[in-house]
């Protein structure tokens, strides 16, 4: 690991590269990315769902009113005349008066006619474990979505870095081809001059013309590649695709890479899922427990919209519900929860191994990329020296054009390979950083 860090420091020193601009782009990407905004909307929705779950603990107060107008239908017969008229007749005879009238039997409608009832109805849960565990589930779901957002942010940071390095790689490739084009055009000019002076044959002139065309085509391809790389980078930042990209050229230190997969958000997510599943199990068990709630009504009711002291009333009480038997439905639900718990534990063990494997592969890829970069850098220095020597010999007439062309191609290819290896190393470093979850998301 120390050897790897030394190579990384050497790489950074070689490139003279700074990440201050890149850090700014990452910050902008985390702020403006549309997917992150969508995740934030989901988290806000979960927070409101949590507040809704908390509101279930408070009383519910409603204003209810109804008015009924009825005629016909079922009645209740009250034989008040049959019961009291004989008594009243005897009393009239005893008192020798008509003080006690003759009463008629009554027939009262069951449906009240011209009757109103207006009341304030209040209910409140006093003992309800389902509400308690529902609130806990909403809290855990909010935490779970927050963790999922952190996972996406880390992946986005990696993608932004890789896109940035690929853009720099393409820009450097354009510079290499532009320098190569100047070189082959100079060869074209020299060969045309030598041909006019009968120093070389036409074959060298035609070959130099073809080299100019080939390098121009490669340059155009490199420009298109750079345009695509810029567009993708700006897409990740939710900016206009053609927006310019600024770069730095300052040296930065490297950070120590220590295996940190045990703190990956993916494992924290599985831990949260396990806790959520346990709460679901407790919610299922709570169905075996009784629920108790209270209610109270305060209002007025009377006929013909009369309002007086006799119209006022209150009505209050307690409601108890206890499920005695449900066909073992809750028992089987709990068995399902237990199986989910076993599955989550198995997934956790598997993900731990996957994350450790990802870290080791990324670490090995970085080492390999750095070794390749060092090898290409040495080849580049050799190719440059070889090209300078052959160019000098060709101008002195001691080397043929094919040898010059071969030396120049080696020089151009060495630059391209070194450029590719350089930014492949940066890309591998970004992938290792993602596998190790070491980037500070603040």
UniProtKB/TrEMBL annotation:
Subcellular location: Cell outer membrane
Keyword field contains Nucleotide-binding: no
Transmembrane segments: none
Residues in the signal sequence: none
Family membership noted in the UniProt record: Belongs to the outer membrane factor (OMF) (TC 1.B.17) family.
Record-given protein name: TolC family protein
Coiled-coil boundaries: 363-396
Native source species: Flavobacterium polysaccharolyticum
Cell wall biogenesis/degradation is among the record's keywords: no
């Amino acid at each position: 690991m120390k050897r790897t860090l030394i190579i990384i420091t050497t790489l950074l020193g070689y490139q003279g590269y700074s990440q201050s601009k890149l850090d700014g782009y990452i910050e902008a990407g985390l702020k403006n990315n549309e997917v992150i905004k969508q995740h934030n909307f989901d988290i806000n929705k979960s927070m409101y769902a949590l507040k809704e779950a908390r509101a279930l603990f408070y009383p519910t107060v409603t204003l209810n009113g109804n008015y009924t107008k009825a005629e016909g239908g079922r009645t209740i017969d009250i034989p008040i005349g049959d019961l009291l008229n004989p008594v009243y007749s005897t009393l009239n005879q005893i008192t020798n008066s008509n003080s006690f009238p003759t009463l008629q039997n009554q027939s009262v409608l069951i449906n009240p006619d011209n009757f109103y009832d207006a009341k304030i109805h209040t209910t409140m849960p006093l003992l309800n474990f389902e509400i308690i565990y529902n609130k806990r589930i909403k809290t855990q779901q909010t935490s779970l979505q927050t963790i999922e957002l952190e996972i996406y942010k880390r992946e986005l940071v990696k993608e932004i870095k890789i896109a940035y390095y690929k853009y720099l790689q393409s820009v450097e490739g354009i510079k290499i081809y532009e320098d190569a084009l100047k070189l082959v055009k100079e060869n074209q000019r020299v060969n045309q001059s030598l041909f006019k002076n009968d120093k070389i044959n036409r074959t060298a002139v035609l070959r130099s013309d073809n080299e100019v065309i080939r390098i121009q085509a490669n340059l155009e391809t490199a420009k298109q590649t750079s345009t695509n790389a810029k567009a993708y980078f700006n897409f990740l930042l939710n900016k206009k695709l053609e927006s310019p990209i600024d770069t730095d050229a300052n040296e930065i230190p490297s950070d120590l890479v220590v295996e940190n997969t045990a703190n990956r958000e993916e494992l924290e997510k599985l831990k949260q899922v396990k806790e959520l599943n346990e709460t679901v199990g407790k919610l299922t068990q709570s169905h075996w427990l009784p629920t108790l709630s209270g209610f109270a009504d305060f209002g007025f009711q009377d006929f013909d919209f009369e309002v007086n002291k006799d119209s006022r009333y209150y009505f209050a009480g307690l409601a108890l519900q206890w499920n005695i038997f449900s066909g073992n439905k809750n028992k089987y639900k709990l068995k399902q929860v237990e199986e989910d718990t076993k599955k989550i534990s198995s997934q956790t063990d598997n993900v731990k191994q996957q994350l450790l494997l990802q870290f080791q592969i990324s670490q090995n890829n970085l080492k390999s990329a750095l070794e390749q970069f060092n090898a290409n850098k040495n080849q580049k220095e050799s190719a440059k020296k070889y090209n300078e020597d052959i160019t000098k010999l060709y101008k002195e007439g001691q080397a043929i054009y094919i040898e010059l062309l071969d030396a120049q191609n080696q020089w151009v290819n060495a630059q391209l390979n070194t450029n590719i290896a350089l930014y492949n190393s940066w890309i591998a470093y970004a992938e290792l950083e993602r596998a190790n979850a070491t980037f500070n998301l603040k």
